[in-house]
Amino acid sequence: MLKRIAVTDLRLGMHIHELCGSWMEHPFWKTRFQLTSPKDLQRLQDSGVREVWIDIGKGRDVDPGQASQSVAEVQAEAEARLLAVETPRVVRPVSLDEEVGRALKLCSEAKAAVVAMFSDARMGLAVDTGHVGELVEDISASVLRHPNALISLARLKTSDEYTYMHSVAVCALMIALARQLQLPEGLVREAGVAGLLHDIGKMAVPQDVLNKPGKLSDSEFSTVRGHPQAGARILLESKQVSALVLDVCLHHHEKVDGSGYPHSLEGEQISLFARMGAVCDVYDAITSDRPYKQGWNPAEAIRKMAEWCKGHFDEAVFQAFVKTVGIYPTGSLVRLESGRLGVVLEQYERSLLTPRVKVFFSTRSRMPIPQQVVDLARPPGNDRIVGREVPEAWGFHDLDALWLGRERRAGSAFG
């Protein structure tokens, strides 16, 4: 049986099932292990992780009187938080398929631009952000034509291109979120620039540390946690970005409960744009494949973030983010009441709970079925989503080909 407890309630002998929070908040390679070392216990208590899941079937239970939550209780809270989100109004001037074609080309161009800019930073050269504005305008236009296309595409990065495409993805997410918050277009563009440059400080981190497939040492973890300050120095020296962009670079790892870094800011001490950056950064990080971990399914990522929301993210910003990407983002595997499994294509503009879904598999026969696009928001409305599914549990390894197209999915999407 799984229970969620505070890190302060951890005891030696407990079996860690999962660490709650971003992967960048802790130095542990394995997220499931028996807690037998006092040193590991201390490292956990000193890390940015505030809660963990323990498996009492494999290790020590909580002491009498200690607070804990079951899986059902935590999931119920997360579901209630997600279902409380109101429906967004999104303008979609072009089809998803049409915009995917444009967005593929844009992602390739954006990756090349970010690689060149970040490479200058790694070599200690002056960073030229002169073309950033033009790139952000192109990304902004794509998001406006169809918000799901580029955001969903950018998630399909390989682990080798993560650092660069993560910047493109966060740029697109920041733009979409800023529009959801109804910010003026000038600030929407600034949000995009901030997203594109928020992780430039990682160029000060040795590549063997940045791409290490195993557990980080204490010194390596400390080096990685120094990337916000390093990025702020790089941008400050460039003298080409606003204070808003600089602030997001420096503070996108702060948390509203004050447990973030580098300055342990809390609540309103963290700017709106830094709070936006925190949500966008974590979402893309946990849905992307990394050298040390496979990314989560988008719907599972949203549910997990809803669990972490209190203390980690600004509640209002997170709810606006859910409106932006949907409770079931493009690429999510869902189970319908009819027993069919399908991949979410896009959100229907009047309801987050009734997206367009491509069904392809029957859970009853456990066999593939003819692919069919089902619009759950349109009559007769005799089917509905009853749950999220984990692709690996069904042996599905390339669901993105169903919404993206196999010819587009082959290899790295961005050259």
Please give a structural write-up:
- The model is unreliable at 87-91 and 407-411 (pLDDT under 50).
- The strands form two sheets. This protein has a five-stranded antiparallel sheet. Strands 9-8-7-6-10 form a five-stranded antiparallel sheet.
- The protein has helices at 38-46, 71-83, 96-122, 132-145, 147-154, 162-180, 185-197, 207-210, 218-225, 227-238, 243-251, 272-287, 298-312, 315-325, 400-404, 406-409, and strands at 2-6, 15-19, 33-34, 51-55, 69-70, 333-336, 340-348, 351-362, 367-375, 385-388.
- The chain folds into three domains: 2-67, no CATH class; 96-325, Hypothetical protein af1432, CATH 1.10.3210.10; 333-409.
- With 415 residues, the chain is of the alpha+beta class.
- It has 16 helices and ten strands.
Brief description of this entry?
By secondary structure, this protein is α+β, with helices and mostly antiparallel strands. The protein has helices at residues 38-46, 71-83, 96-122, 132-145, 147-154, 162-180, 185-197, 207-210, 218-225, 227-238, 243-251, 272-287, 298-312, 315-325, 400-404, 406-409; strands at 2-6, 15-19, 33-34, 51-55, 69-70, 333-336, 340-348, 351-362, 367-375, 385-388. It is built from 16 helices and ten strands.
**Low-confidence segments:** 87-91, 407-411
Strand content: 5-15%
Order of helices and strands: EEEHEEHHHHHHHHHHHHHEEEEEHH
State the end-to-end distance.
45 Å
Name the helicity range. Answer: 40-55%
Largest sheet: 5 strands, antiparallel
Structural class: alpha+beta
Q: How large is the radius of gyration? A: 21 Å
Number of E-type strands? 10
Number of separate domains: 3
Across the major sheet, the strand order is 3-2-4-1-5
